[in-house]
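Ligand-bound model needed. uridine-diphosphate-N-acetylglucosamine.
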Amino acid sequence: MHILLTGGAGYIGSHACVVLLEAGHDVVVVDNFSNSSPVALERVKQITGKSVVQYPVDLTDRQALRNVFEVHPIDAVMHFAGLKAVDESVNRPLHYYWNNVTGSVVLLETMAEYGVRSIVFSSSATVYGATEQVPTDETCPPSPTNPYGRSKWMVETILADLFASDPRWHIGILRYFNPVGAHESGLIGEDPNGVPNNLVPYIAQVAVGKREWLRVWGNDYPTPDGTGIRDFIHVMDLVEGHLSALETLLEKPACLVYNLGTGRGTSVLEMVAAFEKASERPIPYRILDRRPGDIAVSTADPTRANRELGWHARRDVFDMCRDTWRWQRQNPDGYGRSGR
Ligand code: UD1
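Prediction:
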């Protein structure tokens, strides 16, 4: 199949390229490279021996997107493109709604124009907000607490409305828990701009000596060691989940929602210990106040994806740390400035 990946040069998109190419699909990438590097796609070629066709296209540029559909016989879309920093979304909500929501609407309109009606959408567990239902299953009512989360929920709603209006669509909405890790080659991985917001990229930068110590945001949560608990999922498990979702969706028209998580929780301090073990380096840390907007515990109930997609996350926290470390050690400056 010819699969279009929006945001295909990004952290998750580049790993999806590898899995799709290795499964024998043709991959076309559109990416505006605002938070990604074309070097990632060169690395994908190095890993798979296969090329990816790429276009520097912003989804809000309707004509540029049409040109891609004009040239390639696209069968299905995986829609990864989007802005994802919570803080920034609070300060620049219109920027987030324009990119994440308008970009998705233009994509869906263009797909409809070209008769392409299969899409897997990257949503986030962030749509559940501060739910008390933990582990969280897909029936939990979404209640996002910031513009980034609301942009994801809006697109989910748009997809459900689209399916209601035209039941020929095949739609899969995947709610990611906390993706971490890297391809086992160490050639591709997460390359955050500036100071990492997320825990594991920050720990990795401490291990490699780019940052002195980790700031642990609070140790007074109602958890066994007082630090926050998350459901970390290896990015390779995550992208394998996308392939399973696509295969399931293609069987019959539907609009389906799945959590992608392991179902297991790991605390901040447990993650620090696991990373120390995997990297054989100390991770100094200091306890600071809670980060506003953080919740104590977030874990998935992945039963629906396990049952309906026949998919299970296979990799454990040690695998996540070992693979993140290999990527960080081999690429201390990520894809480097030249790629930006
Ligand atoms: C965050 C976003 C979420 C987004 C996800 C993307 C917030 C409030 N939530 O989730 O919307 O979908 O990233 O992956 O920003 N921690 C530290 N020190 C750090 C960084 C994090 O102690 O330097 C702690 C946090 O307090 C939290 C845990 O580590 O308990 C995980 O944090 P993070 O990796 O940022 O993920 P989320 O907050 O779950």
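Residues 59 and 103 are 5 Å apart (CA to CA).
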